[in-house]
Specification:
Elements: E1 4-6, E2 11-12, E3 17-18, E4 22-24, E5 29-30, E6 35-36, E7 41-44, H1 47-60, H2 69-76, E8 81-82, E9 87-88, E10 93-95, E11 99-100, E12 105-106, E13 111-112, E14 117-118, E15 123-124, E16 129-130, E17 134-136, E18 141-142, E19 147-148, E20 152-154, E21 159-160, E22 165-166, E23 180-182, E24 187-188, E25 193-194, E26 199-200, E27 205-206, E28 211-212, E29 220-223, E30 228-232, H3 233-244
Parallel strand pairs: 1-4, 2-5, 3-6, 4-7, 5-8, 6-9, 7-10, 8-11, 9-12, 10-13, 11-14, 12-15, 13-16, 14-17, 15-18, 16-19, 17-20, 18-21, 20-23, 21-24, 22-25, 23-26, 24-27, 25-28, 27-29
Antiparallel strand pairs: 29-30
């Protein structure tokens, strides 16, 4: 049996497909021809709203039958916006205040916290966490199990490989978080760690396993712990082109 909760203020465009056990709250808008898989939540309220909701329930002594959790969450949620032609896969949770552009996809079990803005045609891999207050440009690919905390700004056409970790606090846990910027056309290799408060310049490349502690110049390639320049982007692109010539040699490719 199909089970859904779709709030009364939700706006669904034509040809939206919604699976089982889906919850959509608040003033959420979903664009045409978008696919919402089973067990997806969209418009989930922020922690502050949940806390206030529980305080109100204590004040009025509500711990009895007839109180519907979905209705309460729906009432306090400001909702989110999902563009046209999006694919939101199973297990994804999207908080309120999120804006996702046209043609975007999530993998399975993605968490997108409040006030995240994602441009058009982006892909967010399985088990990735966008932990609120993150901005992402157009045509950016973020692969599986990436962690991006608040105050990270990511440009367009960026490629972030699996298990990359960003930070936003140089002396954790402190009361100050700082902004980290990734400019357009950057490549970040798997298992890299990006330390808070730096800028990764346009077109630069971070080698797999690097720990980036300082800002990176545009079109530089850095590697190591801590990461240091090893070549320029044009040399990297040349090596990449030579490497790609081998495509087709092996039968599984």
């Amino acid at each position: 049996m199909m089970q859904q909760y779709i709030g009364s203020r939700v706006v669904l465009s034509p040809r939206v497909l919604i699976g089982n056990n889906v919850s959509i709250y608040g003033l959420t808008k979903i664009g045409t021809r978008s696919y919402i898989d089973d067990s997806v939540t969209i418009g989930y309220p922020t922690r502050d709203k949940i806390v206030k909701l529980m305080e109100r329930l204590e004040d009025i002594g509500v711990a009895k039958e007839g109180i519907e959790l979905h209705l309460m969450l729906d009432k306090v949620s400001s909702g989110s916006s999902i563009g046209d032609n999006c694919i939101i896969r199973r297990g994804t949770v999207i908080y309120e205040g999120v804006s996702i552009g046209n043609g975007c996809e999530t993998g399975h079990n993605v968490l997108i916290r409040e006030n995240v803005n994602i441009g058009n045609r982006c892909k967010i891999g399985s088990y990735t966490i966008l932990d609120g207050y993150v901005t992402i440009g157009n045509d950016t690919v973020i692969q599986s199990a990436v962690y991006i905390p608040p105050k990270v700004l990511i440009g367009s056409r960026v490629f972030i490989a699996p298990r990359v970790v960003f930070t936003n606090d140089r002396y954790p846990p402190s009361r100050r978080i700082v902004e980290t910027v990734v400019e357009d056309d950057v490549i970040i290799g798997a298992n890299s760690t990006i330390i808070a408060g730096i800028k990764i310049g346009k077109g630069s490349v971070i080698a797999a396993g690097s720990v980036v502690t300082r800002s990176v110049e545009p079109y530089a390639v850095v590697a190591g712990v801590p990461a240091k320049p090893v070549m320029k982007r044009d040399e990297y692109d040349k090596k990449k082109m030579e490497y790609e010539v081998l495509v087709g040699v092996f039968p599984w490719r």
